[in-house]
Amino acid sequence: MGQRDELLQMSNVDKVFNGSVEALKDLNLTVNQGDFISLLGPSGCGKSTALRLIAGLMRQTSGQIIWNGGLNEGDLGVVFQEPTLMPWATVEQNVWLPHRLRGKSMDDVRGDIMWALKMVGLENFQKSYPRELSGGMKMRVSIARALVTQPRLILMDEPFAALDEITRHKLNNDLLMLRDKLKCTVIFVTHSVFESVFLSDRIVVMAARPGRVSAEVTVDAPYPRTEEFRTSADYADLCRKASDALHGAMNQHGERASA
Amino acid sequence: MSVSDMQPPVVDLEEQQFARAKRRESIAKWALPAIMLALAIYSWDRIVVWNDIPHYILPRPGLVMQTLTADWAMLSDALWVTLKITLMALGVAVVGGVGLAVLFTQSRYFEMAFYPFAVILQVTPVVAIAPLIFIYVDNRLAGLLLCAWIVAFFPILSNTTLGLNSTDHNLRDLYKIYGATRWQRLRYLQLPTALPYFLGGLRIAGGLSLIGAVVAEYVAGTGGIGSGLAFRILEAGYRLNIPRMFAALLLIAVTGVVIFTLASLLSHALLHKWHESAIKREN
Ligand SMILES: Nc1ncnc2c1ncn2[C@@H]1O[C@H](COP(=O)(O)OP(=O)(O)OP(=O)(O)O)[C@@H](O)[C@H]1O
Ligand SMILES: [Mg+2]
Fold this sequence. Notes:
The structure holds 2 protein chains of 2 kinds. Chain A is of the alpha/beta class. Chain A has 2 domains: about 15-75 and about 155-260, P-loop containing nucleotide triphosphate hydrolases (Rossmann fold); about 85-150, no CATH class. Chain A contains 8 helices and 9 strands. Chain A has helices at about 45-55, 90-100, 105-120, 135-145, 165-180, 195-200, 225-230, 235-259; strands spanning about 5-15, 20-30, 35-40, 60-65, 75-80, 155, 185-190, 200-205, 210-220. In chain A, the strands form 2 sheets. Chain A has a 6-stranded mixed beta sheet with strand order 5-6-7-3-8-9, with helices on both faces. In chain A, a hairpin with a 4-residue loop joins strand 8 (about 200-205) and strand 9 (about 210-220). Chain A is globular and about 50 Å long. The N and C termini of chain A lie far apart (about 45 Å). Chain B folds into 2 domains: about 5-50; about 60-270, MetI-like fold. Chain B is built from 10 helices and no strands. The chains are: A alpha/beta, B mainly alpha. The structure holds adenosine-5'-triphosphate (ATP) and magnesium ion. Magnesium ion binds near residues 47, 48 and 157 of chain A.
């Protein structure tokens, strides 16, 4: 795979809420160009907090987050657990949003919008309203909106958690295809060991109270990964490995709680 | 294609019942109120006839309609005056209510400072304030307008404020990530979110501005040219012209219904494409 350029560096990041809740403690994470990183961990271990810090929605209590080359407009795309679409706007107007907020007219960026919609397979739904779409399609619109500025980094916070298994598998496959085409970097938060192994090349396992990195699992299976990978012995082995790491993280938490 | 593919679609018994119930309901929706209304008017007429009630106590519906046409010149003038005050008050209530709501959401401190005044205006009955208003405000039209506005603006203010503050928190984060300005957030996110709330407030305010206009005119009391329906009712009352009272009352009621219907239609026109309240679902 070769050495990748560094994109983002989080060093010794702490985040304390209300002066007492240690959401993150001494978090260190290096994100390289082209990485697909999954953040895996129990509820409340600070995964969303880490994403929010990277997105600049809040500031860390201490420590540093450094972007290689600085953070410029359009560098970030975000996908939340809910599709988070504006119900009064059509699909294309929703995808227009990141550009629109930078003062670009629909006509200027129609090409980008169509490109993004084509990427997620919704080029025939530009004029539809969100309520006319299924849950999976809404999520695709949300992904198209994140892609439309061709960001350097895409943050995804449990984007498929609310979908049924079949739709989730389909979107997993499509996400990998997209990522292969665009060579973008992704940080993907999930609760699912299987999803994290299928998608990522690095799994960062986090532990709670205080939130921190507990282990990192490298998934060295080659891309492209298809449905065959899901049933392969390699996949099963890697899932076991990630699962063990996750249980390790949860037990650390248990020891602390009972101590 | 085989023959079996050509058969008409299967409609089971439950579906048939369901379709029939739906058809029946859609007819009843219009027919039932119309029949009940006709029945009520008819029994009103019968009660007057059977009991020999004199027309200066309770006129027959027919007489009310006769009076309405006979006095149409005077009554339509009065209707126009009341309508004008009502619509102007509603207009000012919309501008003032939405404007204040926007200011409230731009600054928490502004809201803290001025919300109490809005509440005080709202909870004090307009009949109690009106006499004072007519002492201080020389222009009669301005006084009437002010009274009607006081009654009408609060639902718009409170509904719109609620709407502007009801934006989805993830969307708010998204706007922040993409570096939206205050103005962009207001225009593209908060105002559309507030639209259904505002329209709900508008429906209430439409009725209230009519009430405000009528009540204010009762209090103002002066007549002559340029007086509205409320004054015509008062005047007809003094002269024991009960049929004319009913005719004027009828005009007020119809005006209220028309305003409410227009507001509902507007609401439907603006929301039917996307809002849950306007979406008809099966079952
Ligand atoms: N704004 C906030 N104010 C106070 N505490 C917060 C805030 N946001 C998060 N926390 C706390 O910080 C901790 C980490 O929260 P976070 O949402 O990052 O967890 P998470 O790993 O994303 O959990 P989940 O898997 O349930 O989404 C939790 O204990 C949470 O209660
Ligand atoms: Mg979370």
